[in-house]
Amino acid sequence: MNLDISESLSSLKSGGIIIYPTDTVYGLGADIHSETAVEKIHTLKERSSKEKPISILLKKEWIPDYTDLSELAEKRVEELLPGPYTLVLKKTDKVPVWIANQDYVGIRVIDTIVVNELLDKFSSPITTTSANLRGAPPPKSIEEIPDAIINSVDSIIDTGPIISKGPSTVIKINEKEEVLR
């Protein structure tokens, strides 16, 4: 079990890709400001950025910088985050176009020691998408991640199997609310 995040921080800072545990599944992380790293994630997952935008993992206090919260969205952020939810919210100009090329961005706030330490020390959001190939089940352990992905990342944080009901629930929120997954 690798709980030392220094290698992963170094990888993120140099435009690399990491595998890290979320509260639901293992994810792929990269600096959201590195277009090259984000494109590498899309390539690894065998999909294009136009096909599916990538969500971001951030600290709760950073949400106003990256999203334009409606009254309903602000209420739901308070009620649901941190938690096993991806909220799709209206984005601000601070979200790079290669993350979300439309008006919305998916955000996650996760309250785990590893994620909190990673974000505190990196001081910027990272990508959050499951470490699986398109159409495959999201991995709850490192052993479930395809070799093609394992062999293409720069660092892995392995905290053992994740006990969860599956991937996050995705909810799009503006003036109304729509469950997407």
TrEMBL record:
SUPFAM superfamilies: YrdC/RibB (SSF55821)
Locations listed in the record: Cytoplasm
Keyword vocabulary terms for this entry: ATP-binding, Cytoplasm, Nucleotide-binding, Nucleotidyltransferase, Transferase, tRNA processing
Single Gene Ontology MF annotation: double-stranded RNA binding
InterPro entries assigned to the protein according to its UniProt record, in alphabetical order: DHBP_synth_RibB-like_a/b_dom, Sua5-like_dom, TC-AMP_synthase_SUA5
A biological process term (GO) from this entry: regulation of translational fidelity
A Pfam family per the record: Sua5_yciO_yrdC
Top-rank EC class of the record's enzyme: transferase
TM regions (residue ranges): none
Catalytic activity of the protein: L-threonine + hydrogencarbonate + ATP = L-threonylcarbamoyladenylate + diphosphate + H2O
Gene Ontology cellular component annotations, sorted alphabetically: cytoplasm
EC number: 2.7.7.87
PROSITE patterns: YRDC
Residues of the YrdC-like domain: 2-181
Homology family: Belongs to the SUA5 family.
Annotated protein name in UniProt: L-threonylcarbamoyladenylate synthase
Species annotation: Candidatus Undinarchaeum marinum
